Amino acid sequence: MDRRNFIGKSALAAGAVTIIPKRVMAKDGKSTPPSDRVNLGYIGVGKQSLHLLNALMKCPETMVLAACDVDINKLERFKGLAEKANKRKLDGGTQAVDTYENYRELLARKDIDAVVIATPDHWHAMIAVDAAKAGKDIFCEKPLASTVAEGRAMVDATRKYERVFQTGNMQRSWRNFRHACEMVRNGYIGEVKEVNASVGDPVMACELPAEPEPDFLNWDLWVGPSLFRNYHSILAPGIEFNGYPNWRLYSGFGGGMVTDWGAHMFDIGQWALGMDKSGPVEFIPPEKRGKRGMKMVYENGVVMNHVDWGSFNAVQFLGTEGKIEVSRGFYRSDIEGLTEMELKDSDTPLYTSDNHYQDWIDAIKNRTRPVSDVETGHRTSALCNIVNIAYTLERPLKWKPAHEKFIDDDDANAMLTRPFRGEWDFHDF
């Protein structure tokens, strides 16, 4: 089906009768009254959205009302899966999922409480700002923003409109990562000297050759606020591609693995060091041009290194009395029994979330801040973006976290934002 025909059919479907049940059934057989429902709209429905759909539909309060994407095949697939998921939760009846090409039409719906943003990174800020303006609570995939300025705008818009915002760095809701950070925070490995994070390469320039635009995709809208370049299938492959698309490697659309996995592993470093509202004060690239070796120096002298230390996508904490190493595949220490150690009454625990998605839903209901609030997500993505700037400029940079500016470096400060094209303006809130 081509894009034009699909959009026409979707418009007709939006007017179809939906049989709405009085209650939503949870897994335990208990029902959720309609007044307690959290109606969701999904913006960006590629591979990651399928994981989010599965996870969020396990929350008893959720129902999907709408979805948006510029790829008609992915949109049709998501619509089918979401309607099936809705039906499984309903105590009789069905709930249709309406589809849109332009996310602002979805945001205009008064019956949608919250949105899930799972677009390519270059869209995050613009959509999140518009969502906050529209009165929607927000779950946004990591890395939060493509530039420091965009991340700050996301924070400011969220606060202005009093929205609940969860960043999709779900490791903060995993026991081993939280426990590792608690052990570091409470001095169980002594005084922390270094943190080593293995996360992959910095961003690359996008110099891909042009390819014909496919019929299933609105390419101009996919590029959106970024400076226009011609289509290439690496950036936006069709539905038959089962991996994660590599737009994330290229400037203008992503930030390389430094932002893609740094948003996870640098984030754990930030959490353990108590830097969720701050960050390093100096960024020192390797003496010889390279893809590893960046040193991030905090005001207290602790150094976080972007370095391959023997494990992939993992974090290593080195203290005066021992070490902790943690990833999604292991949690270990050279201190016997540390990984299972319980906190003492005198220790300081961290925010406990055992389910990143239910934590967001609970925060929406209670109007509280979740485990990875927008400020937290912004500070981590800002760190990642600055690492890319330092690799690009190939010189040390001094940073003032409180002011989010470089000291005496106009060229670096100019890279804290990027040009947006056309009507798009993330400052408009």
Structural notes for this entry:
By secondary structure, the chain is α/β, with parallel strands linked by helices. The chain has two domains: 3-171, NAD(P)-binding Rossmann-like Domain (Rossmann fold, 3-Layer(aba) Sandwich), CATH 3.40.50.720; 172-202 and 258-414, Dihydrodipicolinate Reductase, domain 2. The chain is 31% helix and 16% strand. The chain is built from 13 helices and 17 strands. It has helices spanning 3-13, 47-56, 72-89, 103-107, 124-133, 148-160, 175-185, 219-223, 256-260, 262-272, 356-366, 374-393, 410-414; strands at 24-25, 31-32, 38-43, 62-68, 98-100, 114-117, 137-140, 165-167, 192-198, 282-284, 295-297, 303-306, 314-319, 323-327, 331-333, 397-400, 405-406. A nine-stranded mixed beta sheet has the order 15-14-13-9-12-11-10-16-17. Strands 5-4-3-6-7-8 form a six-stranded parallel beta sheet, sandwiched between helices. Strands 1-2 form a two-stranded antiparallel sheet. Helix 5 (124-133) runs parallel beside helix 6 (148-160). It is globular.
Topology of helices and strands:
Blueprint lengths: L2 H11 L10 E2 L5 E2 L5 E6 L3 H10 L5 E7 L3 H18 L8 E3 L2 H5 L6 E4 L6 H10 L3 E4 L7 H13 L4 E3 L7 H11 L6 E7 L20 H5 L32 H5 L1 H11 L9 E3 L10 E3 L5 E4 L7 E6 L3 E5 L3 E3 L22 H11 L7 H20 L3 E4 L4 E2 L3 H5 L15
Parallel strand pairs: 3-4, 3-6, 4-5, 6-7, 7-8, 9-12
Antiparallel strand pairs: 1-2, 9-13, 10-11, 10-16, 11-12, 13-14, 14-15, 16-17
